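Input sequence (107 aa), recorded before submission:
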Amino acid sequence: MSDTVVINGAILEKDAEDTWQAGADTLEKMAQAIPEISAPDFSIMPGGQEAAKLYVTARQALAEYITGGKDEFLAFEHLLLKAAIAYGKAHGATVDEITRMEKELES
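Predicted structure, token format:
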């Protein structure tokens, strides 16, 4: 039985981009898609001013929650890219490959 572990840096990089960055991008779009409704639009119902205030509070809380998820996705993406860079440096990745991943990490 072999204790050798092989890590494919290209797979780590692909996962970082295709899963975690893509997920963060989707969450960003979700946060931006939460509609803003102006206070006058609530005036057609009794207690409209209070409903407008509650809606603004709920909208803000939801946007912050989604943004928190986006931040977690980006953190995981960065960890995967750091692992791919470290593995690449240790196992013969080209300078161009390392540079490409480092630029992605900075973006």
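Checked by second reader. Residues 9-106 form one domain.
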